[in-house]
Amino acid sequence: MDIQLIHQFIKNALAEDVGDGDHTSLSTIPSGTQGRAKLIIKEDGILAGMELAVEIFAVVDASLKVDVLLQDGAAVKVGDIGLTVSGSTHSILIAERLVLNCMQRMSGIATKTHRIVSLLKDTKTKILDTRKTTPGLRYLEKWAVRIGGGVNHRIGLYDMILIKDNHVDYAGGISNAIKAAQKYLADQQKSLQIEIEVRNIEELSQVLATGGVDRIMLDNFSFDNLKAAVKLIDGKFTTEASGGITEENVLEYAACGVDYISMGALTHSVKSLDISLKAY
C-alpha cells in the first residue's frame, strides 16, 4: 500500500464529504459520546478494502479502536462481520460513508475478478485490468483487481508504451510507430516494455516483420482469427486478447491460447458488494 498516495486520497475524500463539519451528528449527538459499530456483509463475495478502511479510521481519528475480523481476499457470506470499531461516535460517523464507498466498490471488483480467475483456473491465461477506471480511484480499483487474483496491466500512460490504433494511424503505420517508440526509449534512456495493438492478421504480419515489441494485443479478433494469430506468433511475443470479452465468453477466448485477456468490465461497470456499518 502506497501510504502517501492513500493518505492524500483520504484527505481529499473527507474534504469533499465533511466540508465545514458533519452538522447532522454535531446537532443530534452530544460531544464526547462514545459508541461502537460493526461492518456487516450483506452479500456473498470477496472482501477488499479492509486495509484501506483501517487507514481511513486512523486518519479520521487515531483514537478509534478497530478490530479486523476478516482480511482482504477473504470469501465472505451474508451476515459475516468484517470489523468492529469503537470510540467517538462523531468520528465513526464521519468515516462511515468513505469506508463503505471504498469497500463496496473494491469488494465488487475483487468478487468479479475472482469469478473470472476461477473460470480460467485450468488454462494458462491470466486476466488483466485496463485504464478504464474511475478518475481518482484507479489505485484502489487496480488494488482490488489484485486482491481478486487478477493482474494489473500498466497503471497509467507513464509505465508502458502501448501503441494502439490511433497511435498507428497518426504515426503513419505500424513500422513507423514501433521504430519511433524504440528511438524515443533510447533517446530518453528509459526502459519500458512496448506493446502494440493489431486489428487483423494483416497488421499482425506487419508487426512480426518489424519486431521490436514485447507484447501484441489482438483486438476484437474472432475466435478463428485469434487461434490463427496465436499460431503465427508462435511464442515469439506475449499475447493479449481484448475487445468484447465478457464473463460469459472469457473461457472461449482463453481456449484460443493467449497469455492474457484484458477486460475493462472488471472496473468500468462492476456491481458493488452490499456492505453496511451499523451501531450495536
From TrEMBL:
Known function: Involved in the catabolism of quinolinic acid (QA).
Native source species: Pedobacter agri
Family: Belongs to the NadC/ModD family.
Designated gene of the protein: nadC
Catalytic activity line of the entry: nicotinate beta-D-ribonucleotide + CO2 + diphosphate = quinolinate + 5-phospho-alpha-D-ribose 1-diphosphate + 2 H(+)
Domain of life: Bacteria
BP-aspect Gene Ontology terms: NAD+ biosynthetic process; quinolinate catabolic process
Record Pfam families: QRPTase_C (PF01729), QRPTase_N (PF02749)
Quinolinate phosphoribosyl transferase N-terminal domain location: 22-107
GO function terms (MF aspect): nicotinate-nucleotide diphosphorylase (carboxylating) activity
UniProt EC number: 2.4.2.19
Keywords of the record: Glycosyltransferase, Pyridine nucleotide biosynthesis, Transferase
Alphabetized PANTHER family for the sequence: NICOTINATE-NUCLEOTIDE PYROPHOSPHORYLASE [CARBOXYLATING]
Subunit record text: Hexamer formed by 3 homodimers.
GO cellular component: cytoplasm
CDD domains assigned: QPRTase
Pathway assigned to this chain's UniProt record: Cofactor biosynthesis; NAD(+) biosynthesis; nicotinate D-ribonucleotide from quinolinate: step 1/1
Annotated substrate binding sites: 97, 130-132, 154, 164, 197, 219, 242-244, 263-265
Keyword Glycosyltransferase: yes
Residue span(s) of domain Quinolinate phosphoribosyl transferase C-terminal: 109-278
Coiled coil: none
Name of the featured protein: Probable nicotinate-nucleotide pyrophosphorylase [carboxylating]
Enzyme type, top EC level: transferase
